# Entry
Amino acid sequence: MKGFIFDLKSQGEKIKIVFKNKTQEKTIIKKFPPYFYLKKYDKAIETVPEIKEIKKEKKENQVLYKVIVDNPGSVIKLRKDLKEFEPIEANIPHVYRFLIDNNLYAMRMYEHNEEGVFEKVVDEKIKLKMASFDLEVYNKEGIPNAEKDAILMISYCDEKESRVFHWEKGKGSEKEMILDFLSKIKKEKIDVLTGYNSSGFDLPYLKKRCSVLGIELDLSKDGSPVNIKKGAFSTKADIFGLLHFDSYDGVAFLNKIGAMNIPKKDLESVYKEMFGKEKLDVEPWKIWRMWEEGGEELKTLIQYNKEDAIAAYEIAKELLPLYIEISKIIGLPIYEITRMSTSQMVEWILIREAIQKGMIIPNTPSEKEVKQRMMNGIKGGFVKQPEKGLHEKIAVCDFRSLYPTLIIAYNIDKTTYNKKCDDYNVSPKGHRFCKKPIGLIPKMLKELLEKRIEIKKQMKQFKEGTNDYKFFYYRQWALKIIANSSYGYMVYARAKWYSREAGESVTSWAREKIHETIKKAEEDGFKVLYTDTDSIFLKLGDKKTKEDVFNLVRKINKDLPEGMELEFEGYFPRGIFVSSKKGERAVKKKYALIREDGALEIKGFELVRRDWSNIAKETQRKVIKTILEQGSPEKAKEVVKKVINEIRERKINLKEFIIYTQIKRKVSSYEQQAPHVKAAKKLIKAGYKVKTGNILEYVIVQGSGSISDRAIPIQLIGNKKYDADYYINNQVLPAVMKIIREVGITEDELKYKGKQQGLNKWF
DNA sequence: TCCCAACGGGG
DNA sequence: GTGTACGTTGGGA
# Structure
């Protein structure tokens, strides 16, 4: 049968594999006894009951003792019990070890022949059937409690249909609804189940409700339960043989690697950002009431539930192909990939590479070592203070994959650092790296980048937007993501092949290159506005043209080592830069640019937190847009003045002044009397219940006392008036001053109505 | 400047 | 899992 390894798990001495293709699926069991190594040996070890066999083996000219045991759990036990014999390679999960030792890659195509051997075959597109779901639950008391709060509705969406399972008081029941939903999932034979934050909420909640109601939540391929793992920062849910892919994880991942820039990652914002479409939004604290009220309210809730599943499905559809490609590169199942940082991805590639070379896999550092590494920071890229203010005619150039190309060009790696050799490079930091043999990370990078060039060539044979094009697009993207993570890996505190020397050499060479670039640009008569690590912003003025920039780029590229390249990134008619020096080193990246087609690129200004009022966020956005589109600080001034005036004259809806803050613990246990804490106390005094997790909505009102004293919950607002001065001075002005200070406008100019005359022109 | 608390997604 | 943990920001001291 031809297919791919979709999922696998460890069972004692065996590995259970789900092997499938478009139409068929089978479970394969392989014997693979767990093992690890000891550096030292003593006869007494032979009597340890968990040990089945001990074999001598040579690795890197060292004699090692391979200890084969009865099950994976014994490895954990023995690596502690036998600590004095120096265990190594004793923390590689059993299924990973199975794949790596057998040179098998999950998600790649194999022919599983009659002898039970996996033979490589030509790679093919993998198609998986996916469905999404979303729950709405009863939440009268704030954060819903799965022990008692029922699921009210479950939406389902796949390629062909979307629908909502629901019940009402006196019509159907929660139990029937869940059973209907589960039988739908079974019937459709889906491979991938998705949702939005379904790891953190929907799946754990569904599991709990099933156990409360006495329903078996049977979604896996082998009867094993949905496995919920609660972590300190996130909860993960997995199902054997059915891939659970949380589209929120995907979005968070893309944000982290900089492939997306969505500061607020709730479903509505993400959906709008990705597809440009609005979806219905319902404020969560209204859900229980809408359900109880029935009628039109209930209909709205059902529609919301339905749209959530559709949105989650569409997002997952965009991201899953990327994960499939990453999975093929790393060779581990998608499920594992979705939970990994890019550093961990790099590490698994290196482990494969090292094992093939017969190297010993270094142990992961101790927590003490990790802390030490973290405290000992590495100097990063060079940032030239921006010339603050508004500028016109800006050209931006950047080095293509600067860090990866440096790592290859100078063979920067832990394994090439300070070794004996005749031919080497010395970094500006003074560290020596041998030119040969090629290091682990440089080798990985070379292969990834070469592969990417080849894939991009193939991609260009197809029309953009076609399925063939997309297939290659995702593949080259996956290669790029991993290549770009190589520097991060070197300086990742938990890395097995961590190297401070390698890391600081990469950044020192990078600083050298950007300094050389600045020098050449200035020699050519360009004004350098700003540089950051690998990019340079040039002001063209009246004398320079785009053509001059192209010439400069060509000139610089002639002198760069092989593989390195400066590229023209874009032309921007206008931009605002803010210099915010933090200490001597770090400069926060804050700028806003407008492209020729009117698209805005904003970095570092975003006010996305819910503890800023709408009026502040909205005004800031308007100001940036006005300055960039019209190029006039005066126009921006008008915008702010108008808003301030409207606040003073109370022309703006109270809603715009609400500040949202979540109560994260018991109200009585707060030490600091922050505004939201005081507001919560007022609510309690008035007879309301305030539970952990509730989001408080409050407004700062006129009166005496501290800001906290004047934080009034929206429920108790009555006819109290918002404090115009507070919103002007502590919300709107701080938000907009970040920007317009740089174009020469002072706070006073905005704040006061000014002297008697001449003002009316603003209003 | 340092340190701590809050925040994130979901209802 | 061959387990136990993030990264950033704002405000107050």
About this structure: The two ends of chain A are 76 Å apart (CA to CA).
